[in-house]
Amino acid sequence: ATAVEIHFKTEASAGGTSASGPGAAAAPAAPPVLPSFRDTFLFRRPVAAMPSARSIVYRNNGRPFAGEDWGRLRKIAEGNPDEQKIGFFGVGFYSLFSICEEPFVTSGDECMAFFWKGDQLFTRKGPVAPESASEWTTFFLSLREPMEVPAITQFGRFLATSLTFTRNLKKIEASPKLHALNTLTHPHQVFIDDDRVLLLNKKAGEVKMMDFQKGNYNMDSANSIFRLTSVSMMKVQLDVTAKLDYDKERGRGQDTEMTTFMRTCTGLCDVRLNGQMAREMERTTKKKAPATTEIHIQFANYDELESSTVSKGRHPILEDL
Questions:
Q1: CA torsion, points 222, 224, 230, 236, in degrees to nearest 10?
Q2: Is the pTM of this model over 0.85?
Q3: How far apart are CA 30 and CA 20, in angstroms?
Q4: Which of 198, 242, 246, 257 could form a disulfide with 253 if both were Cys (CB 3.0 to 4.6 A apart)?
């Protein structure tokens, strides 16, 4: 995925059987029309007072789910067997149940509903309406309890720090209201109802290999599990637009723009495990240990730091960078 959107939907926009949830009728600029497995189950929770969020919609533009992806999602705890992927026992998806009882997922032209019968969790998979098929993968989460929308500064700092080291992800957008899901307006965004409160956009330069005399350095880790084989570097520009003074009740807030310049250095390492350790890792993670791994370091030179918004006000969203 190269782009992500996060939508916090408050009581004011999520009441009743809104067109922004499964089972709703098709409408312009609305989420996909989904099969009525359990009509409006996404929006049947008690109404929460502002400024709490009642539901969250997360979506990304990564590859649509294939059959094996839907199968793992149904089993939840199986995780992703690809050793180059970070999936681990389905922990990421399983964590959704800490805030949501019955998530609903759409990807491509298919969807899957999770629902409870007594103390047993069931799933049902089916097609979405042809006009609502999308390359985006979307998770609809009706919150078990109303949740305070995260503070924009703290949430922005978390997203900015995370985005720095991502390989493919380049944009995050967050807002409170769900916009049309078949178009991409900004890479990484956060929304609260109709207002976009955060936009993060990463621009990465060309990756350049660093030439150094390997004979002058010890290329092995202390226990010889890792051996450094190559080092590359690229320049990164991170642009952030945030409504720092956003008022959820009055809908106020002026966009503040911030930019930071930095470099990311990546070391590629061979992984060399003894037989016992390799078997133990495969037993506990259900996947083979990777043959290679990467180490990332982020830094900035004087000119890059002076050109950044950080040096002109030390804004809290970028201060950790």
A1: -50
A2: no
A3: 6
A4: 246
